[in-house]
Amino acid sequence: MAESVVVLSGGLSHERDVSLRSGRRVSEALRSRGLEVVEADVDSLLLPRLAELDQPVVFPLLHGGAGEDGALREVLGLLGVPFVGSLGSSSRVAFDKSIATTVVHDAGVRTPLQVALPHEIFRELGAATLVKALAEQIGFPMMVKPSRGGSALGCSKVLTAEALPSAMVGAFAYGPVAVVESFVEGTEVTVAVVDRGAGPTALPVVEIRPDSGVYDYAARYTAGATRFLCPAEVPDEVAARCAAVALRVHDVLDLADISRTDLIIDAEGEPVFLEVNVAPGMTETSAVPLAIEAAGWSLGKMCADLVRAASMRGSRMPTMSPHPGALTG
Questions:
Q1: Cα torsion for 204, 246, 191, 201, to the nearest 10°?
Q2: What is the mean pLDDT of residues 88-99?
Q3: Would you call 293 exposed, middle or buried from its count of C-beta atoms within 10 A (0-12, 13-18, 19+)?
Q4: Average pLDDT, the chain
Q5: What single string gives the DSSP state of each residue in 234-298?
């Protein structure tokens, strides 16, 4: 078992505050299990601190940016430091909605119709023509959101062509690529998948009912703004399909330890993939801790099990592709 668990939270993304809250919650949970916890941010002190510790295991709880795009995880791999969660390469694919949706769709999972548009294309080719084409191909209502990011920042439900340009600008404020996808009417749910060392397990389905009708940033992180039902008030066979989709996404994207898949259950009772998160929130208003409790687990025991599994697994070097000109054989 690791001598120290380094809980990483904070960072410089727009989700810094949420990350800090997740980090504090997990740190308390791990300490309740008797583990030595070091709370750290991503700054110039991080690597020297890791070097000073005896057999550290990192528990990344950074949301957005460097925390979920795989970069930091690849650094940890290079340093030989074990960590909880998916490899950098898998995290990078999962973090980009335009790529993850394509991979998941190709694996037979239902997804919305989606188009990815870089800012330069939208600006240079002219918004008017693109708005018309999007309206014809995707239709209204539609969802516009940054390709890379979380916590619903920069996301908008668009009802008319007139509202689309401003929604695109809002998405581009959080990244250079926006995705425009068909809006799926239905029941919003989320399913966590956890692997404590014996294989991935889907936790009970959490149903999400925001008071405002839109599960945006305020609805996610304002206490009382959203009602979470766990288990979800859906038929058992629908819940089973949701769990199967979450496990399929976890497998297809080659994720590890913990993930959370967001879905919409459509009018036919079929789950439709929205996105997946490799560092799900662990705050007091987050869905995953609620699902953990509904499963009869404790947050502290689950987190300690993930740390133990990461410690036993050891360091994981980042995936290296051979140079095209390298000699083989």
A1: 40
A2: 94
A3: middle
A4: 89
A5: S-HHHHHHHHHHHHHHHHHTT--SEEEEEEEE-TTS-EEEEEEESS---STT-HHHHHHHHTT--
pLDDT at site 45: 92
- The C-alpha angle 187, 189, 190, rounded to 5 degrees, equals 165
DSSP state at residue 16: H
User: Do strands 206-210 and 226-229 pair parallel, antiparallel, or not at all (unpaired)?
Assistant: antiparallel
Place of tokens 């949701």: 242
Task: Give percent of the chain with pLDDT exceeding 70.
Answer: 91
Rounded to a whole number of angstroms, the CA Rg of the chain reads 20
* Whole-number Å distance between alpha carbons of 4 and 217: 33
Q: Which two tokens stand for residue 71?
A: 């970069």
pLDDT band at 223 (very low <50, low <70, confident <90, very high): low
The DSSP secondary-structure symbol of 162 reads: G
- Would you state the structure tokens that stand for residue 78, as one six-digit string? 């290079």
Distance CA 159, CA 110 (A): 23
Q: What is the DSSP string of 196-232?
A: SSS-EEEPPPEEEEETTSS--HHHHHSTTSEEEESS-
Collect all residues with Cβ–Cβ distance below 8 Å to 115 and sequence separation of at least 6. 134, 137, 138, 179, 180, 181
pLDDT value at position 15? 78
Is 0.70 surpassed by the pTM of this model?
A: yes
